[in-house]
Inverse folding.
């Protein structure tokens, strides 16, 4: 492509979400690229710039890239530290049987307020390689 004025929209969907690319272009004597992303790495932006430069030789190009997580629970992993929870429950049990301390059985709310959490949450995020691949597909579709 030598020159172009127009608008393009493309999407690419992966296992962890979707990348949307919107491209607006106007004629210009030179190639001018303006890329806006929502926290893409410098490597991802450079990869997109090189892809566009392969296909477009002149024009003022505005690229907007966004990543939307699929929001499903398959990327979230919750694990339980059973040993720590058991140790906490043993201490509560011991305290309940002391004559000078009167306390009720601990509730889940009580346990969640303890200083070291026994529940661990890990959210699996998208890798740079996966993001670059999706972004390149979305930009190619938009071009």
């Amino acid at each position: 492509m030598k020159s172009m004025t127009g608008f393009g929209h493309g999407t690419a969907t992966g296992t962890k979400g979707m990348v949307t690319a919107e491209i607006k272009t106007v004629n210009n004597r030179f190639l001018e690229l303006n890329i806006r992303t929502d926290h893409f790495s410098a490597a991802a932006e450079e990869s997109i710039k090189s892809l566009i430069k392969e296909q477009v030789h002149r024009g003022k190009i505005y690229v907007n890239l966004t990543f939307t997580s699929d929001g499903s629970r398959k990327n979230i992993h919750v694990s339980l530290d059973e040993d720590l929870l058991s140790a906490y429950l043993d201490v509560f049990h011991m305290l309940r049987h002391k004559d000078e301390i009167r306390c009720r059985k601990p509730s889940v709310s009580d346990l969640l307020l303890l200083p070291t959490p026994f529940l661990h949450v890990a959210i699996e995020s998208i890798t740079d390689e996966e993001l670059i691949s999706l972004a390149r597909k979305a930009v190619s579709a938009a071009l």
Notes: The chain is about 35% helix and 30% strand. The first strand starts at residue 6 and ends at 13. The helical segments are 42-55, 82-96, 108-112, 128-142.
